[in-house]
Amino acid sequence: MDFGSLVLSPIKSTDINDLFQVCQDDNLRKFLMEGMEMSMDDCEQLIASNDLFLTKNPIGLYLVRLNDKTIGYGGFKETFPQSENVDFMYALTGEFFGKGLGSEIAQRLLGLYKNSGSPKKITAVVNAENKASIRILEKNNFIHQGKAPGELSHLEYYINAKNP
């Protein structure tokens, strides 16, 4: 697949409709949101929390577009309040699973993070059934640390071995 037309652009409030459409994809929600519905209000909250996150961090969430079509989102956010780490995530709509896009997006996002100069360690949480995402994390130097802490203890917890 040609990734030349793949674009990552910082999420902003004018992207609300694109973000909402992406979040309606059942395949995306299966692993990222554990099947939960994502309302327009939820999308607005995600954008607002990203805006707040960016007041303290040099990099946040991005929309992912391929050939001018929004196909997912990803980036960095705060999963555990008051943590010294930043959580890495990426999500694609189901029609783009298995095409190598997840790996490409992860590499681009991690490159952006490295260039941001942030000193925070990068972590990730993932559903154990999401084997493709686990392979992507492992290819990008994430090491399994066991179960995630707190409310996310049903998910697997990874830390990037190369950052900072």
Write the layout of secondary structure elements.
Blueprint: E1 6-10, H1 16-22, H2 26-32, H3 40-54, E2 61-66, E3 69-77, E4 85-92, H4 101-116, E5 121-126, H5 131-139, E6 142-147, E7 156-160
Parallel strand pairs: 4-5
Antiparallel strand pairs: 1-2, 2-3, 3-4, 5-7, 6-7
Helix pairs in contact: 1-3
Describe the protein's architecture and organization:
This protein has 164 residues and is an alpha+beta fold. The chain has one domain: Gcn5-related N-acetyltransferase (GNAT) (Aminopeptidase, 3-Layer(aba) Sandwich), CATH 3.40.630.30. The protein is built from five helices and seven strands, in the order E-H-H-H-E-E-E-H-E-H-E-E. The protein has helices at 16-22, 26-32, 40-54, 101-116, 131-139, and strands spanning 6-10, 61-66, 69-77, 85-92, 121-126, 142-147, 156-160. It has a seven-stranded mixed sheet with strand order 1-2-3-4-5-7-6, with helices on both faces. A hairpin with a 7-residue loop joins strand 3 (69-77) and strand 4. Helix 1 crosses helix 3. The radius of gyration is 15 Å and the shape is globular. The N and C termini lie far apart (31 Å). This is N-acetyltransferase domain-containing protein. It comes from Bdellovibrio bacteriovorus. InterPro entries: Acyl_CoA_acyltransferase, GNAT_dom, N-acetyltransferase. One of its GO terms (molecular function) is acyltransferase activity, transferring groups other than amino-acyl groups. Pfam families: Acetyltransf_3.
Listing every helix as H and every strand as E from the N terminus to the C terminus, the arrangement reads EHHHEEEHEHEE
In terms of structural class, how would the helical and strand content be classed?
A: alpha+beta
- Biggest sheet record: 7 strands, mixed
**What is the strand arrangement across the widest sheet?**
1-2-3-4-5-7-6
Instruction: From the alpha carbons, calculate the radius of gyration and give it in angstroms.
Output: 15 Å
Strand content: 25-35%
Question: Level of helix content?
Answer: 25-40%
Low-confidence stretches: none
**What fold name goes in the CATH topology slot?**
Aminopeptidase
Alpha-carbon distance between the termini? Answer: 31 Å
- What is the count of helical runs? 5
How would you name the CATH homologous superfamily?
Gcn5-related N-acetyltransferase (GNAT)
What's the CATH architecture name? 3-Layer(aba) Sandwich
**Strand count:** 7
Number of domains: 1
CATH class: Alpha Beta
Query: Overall mean pLDDT score?
Result: 87
Shape descriptor reads: globular
GO molecular function: acyltransferase activity, transferring groups other than amino-acyl groups
Domain N-acetyltransferase: 6-164
Protein name: N-acetyltransferase domain-containing protein
